[in-house]
Amino acid sequence: MTDERPIGYWVKSVDRLLEEVFERALTERRIARRHWQTMNVLAAGPRTVAEIAEQLTPFLGADTISAPEVLADLRELGWIAVPDGRYALTEDGQSALESLRAEVLGLRRQATDGVSDEDYRTTVATLRRMSENLHTVG
Hints:
Layout: H1 7-27, H2 33-42, H3 49-56, H4 67-76, E1 80-81, E2 88-89, H5 91-111, H6 117-135
Antiparallel strand pairs: 1-2
Helix pairs in contact: 1-5
């Protein structure tokens, strides 16, 4: 017998499990998702607090720690510095980010094990289309 639960069940299940696995990996390094996102923003080059906050706005939630708190944590870890009033990754920060990216890539590969590239692209395209459809519902 096949499992015929609705798509909402599977979307929520995958989202919850991805969040748990990702959070566990970050917690082992004493950081949270907001730190990871900030480091990825800074990987593109130095930014002001305002620029960082603007780029992270789409990811904010009610329980999100503030940009200044995240930046203070990353400075304490020695992963960022503030030359000329703009925040930038240090060598240690770049190394930490590369290590985190490798771990995240491994987690993503594990999550998609047995899923063909075509099936993955189809799934993402289908979910994107459903999201677009629901955004137009009045």
